[in-house]
Design goal:
The chain is α+β, with helices and mostly antiparallel strands. It is about 35% helix and about 15% strand. It has a domain of about 80 residues: ATP:guanido phosphotransferase, N-terminal domain (Transferase Creatine Kinase, Chain A, domain 1), CATH 1.10.135. The strands form 2 sheets. Strands 2-3-4-5-1-8-10-9 form an 8-stranded antiparallel beta sheet. Strands 6-7 form a two-stranded antiparallel sheet. Bound molecules: adenosine-5'-diphosphate and magnesium ion.
Length: about 375
């Protein structure tokens, strides 16, 4: 395709799919101003949004420096998604002071003392391309670096555990049944090789090479290797105390970080991630809540999604993104914002949003 044909095609996506942020903010003048090599790179970044016009973001970064190199195109998309006006400077702040505010869900209602809580952060190493641009050898090399770090983390009494790989021939390899069991337990990520968005972006390439997960003895600290970002570091606990959940993640993350090469970050965007929706804190903090009234027993997510949206929350199904509600209207709620909010603001938003939704549910 010539640059003119590409510009034309994106124009028709913009008309047909107004939610596609890549098409909405496609900058034809900037695109024309690039040399052939840079234009090719930008094409790879936006391929997902061109081949999947129903995308919401429609772009994945391939290298952490893409956010600088292609800022005239990406920055307006990022601001649009994260609701940051063009005139407001972006400077991601961090705050992990988990004791400053009390977020105990049991204080809202004793029935919320035993919910499933999860918080994850996305991290990428500065020394490798982002997953969409990694070669098979780089995926395996990265997994070896990560598993080397885990072999040291094993000695930490609070975070010791095991590394499970799905790379064929890995010394840590698990069989298909064990993999399925970990996916059903919400611990391991799903097979990415059938995902049309990740396929076009190259993120799911070479599946299952370079993929695996670390899990602590207590099964409450997990690290995904080789999903949409190099690492997804998370804690999962059943209970109601968000402070405990976040503090555990922070301690584990700090330890793991000392065992790894530097993460990719920028002053403006904080943690650099494949998908611009995850920039900033890189954090998604979620609760699995049973909301039978708001979901009409789990058959219809329309109302809960609408109520949640006005509270700054996103709703996913019980099996994660693109899944349906589970038994008794079980859904996954999480604050939508990740860039321009601190980790502690996300914790507070999850708490406040859960309290407001619960009030509607039990009204
Ligand atoms: P993310 O993209 O944030 O990593 P996904 O939507 O892909 O999350 O979900 C990953 C897995 O985590 C899925 O199995 C999902 O059901 C599970 N999960 C998410 N939140 C919770 C929670 N609060 N409790 C238990 N499992 C959860
Ligand atoms: Mg995901």
């Amino acid at each position: 395709m010539t640059p003119d044909q590409i510009i034309e095609q994106i124009g028709s996506i913009r008309t047909a799919q107004p939610q596609n942020l890549m098409a909405r903010h496609f900058n034809a003048a900037f695109f024309r101003s690039l040399d052939d090599q840079k234009r090719q790179r930008l094409m790879e970044i936006i391929a997902s949004g061109m081949e999947n016009p129903d995308s919401q973001m429609g772009a994945y970064a391939m290298h952490s420096e893409d956010y600088d190199l292609f800022a005239p195109m990406l920055d307006p998309m990022i601001r649009d998604f994260h609701a940051i006006p063009a005139t407001t400077p972006i400077a991601q702040q961090h705050d992990w002071n988990t004791t400053a505010q009390d977020c105990d869900l049991g204080e809202i209602d004793p029935r919320l003392k035993e919910v499933s809580m999860r918080v994850r952060v996305a991290r990428n190493l500065a020394s490798f391309p982002l997953p969409g641009a990694m070669s098979k050898d780089q995926r395996i090399e990265f997994e070896n670096i990560a598993s080397g770090a885990f072999m040291k983390l094993i000695n930490d009494p609070a975070f010791g555990g095991q590394y499970l790989s799905i790379t064929p021939g890995s010394p840590h390899e698990i069989d298909a049944a064990e993999y399925d069991r970990r996916v059903s337990a919400h611990q391991m990520f799903k097979d990415m090789s059938g995902d049309p968005y990740l396929n076009v972006a190259g993120i799911s390439a070479d599946w299952p090479f370079g993929r695996g997960m670390y899990v602590s003895e207590a099964q409450d600290f997990l690290v995904w290797v080789g999903e949409e970002d190099h690492l997804r570091v998370m804690t999962m606990l059943r209970g109601g105390n968000l402070n405990t959940l976040f503090a555990h993640l922070h301690t584990g993350l700090e330890h793991l970080q000392t065992l790894l090469p530097a993460f990719a970050t920028s002053t403006a965007y904080g943690n650099l991630t494949s998908c611009p929706t995850n920039l900033g804190a890189g954090m998604r903090a979620s609760l699995h809540l049973q909301l039978p009234n708001l979901t009409e027993n789990g058959t219809d997510l329309t109302r809960v999604k609408q109520e949640a949206k006005s509270l700054g929350l996103a709703v996913r199904g019980a099996g994660g993104e693109h899944s349906g509600a589970g038994e008794g209207g079980l859904v996954d709620i999480s604050p939508s914002a990740r860039l321009g909010v601190t980790e502690m603001e996300i914790m507070q938003r999850l708490y406040d949003g859960a309290a407001a939704l619960w009030k509607l549910e039990t009204a």
